[in-house]
């Protein structure tokens, strides 16, 4: 079984890492007491699970000392085990807890004979957690997330566990401006400047997917120029959206009625990008009609 064990300091991004792995198809378990790790893996193997991601934190202080031996045993049994220890500076952690207004997991614990009214401060909790996790910090790869955005951390986790990057899906959507711009559009292109087939009575009842309309617009130099400009724009910026961990990019093309020019442009762009990208096309007004 392929196992990714995620541990480290609270607030350093363990939940972000676990979510990345869950989205990649890993069976995920959060906040597992380390003493239960061997039995959990045994159960998952029996059930045929091939990939698992498990988060372990400092709240199970007494069983943390057994974690190195458990990892060694799992590897000896033939499992592919990767361990990630996420950490950050105390300053960064304090800022994150302040932004989210969440309490530290250890803030709810009481030491023996400790006065409930005098619970530990956030910094005291962080120091306590560092002390508890000190013995396992070098168990795997240490990742300092102090200066990492959540999005950058997601990209790093994907690379570190060799997850194949999910392909970005390009949505091309035609629409009518008179009925409003699609709310989910990332880019909106106005194609009303090109000649309108609507004014040809023979073409009026047709759509941009019908050959007579296609032939009409193919013969318009302005339509070809606009198509090339939009194509070049998307082609230029698409790699940047891929590296930004986007799953979808919606390109909306609008004309007056959403029947001819926008449909034609969406179909032409979809056909071009479908050669190299995952593409979905939708015609909003035709779906409504």
From TrEMBL:
The keyword ATP-binding applies. It holds the Pfam family PapZ_C. InterPro entries: P-loop_NTPase, RapZ-like, RapZ-like_N, RapZ_C. Residues 169-286 form the RapZ C-terminal domain. Residues 1-160 form the RapZ-like N-terminal domain. Keywords: ATP-binding, GTP-binding, Nucleotide-binding. This is RNase adapter RapZ. The gene is rapZ.
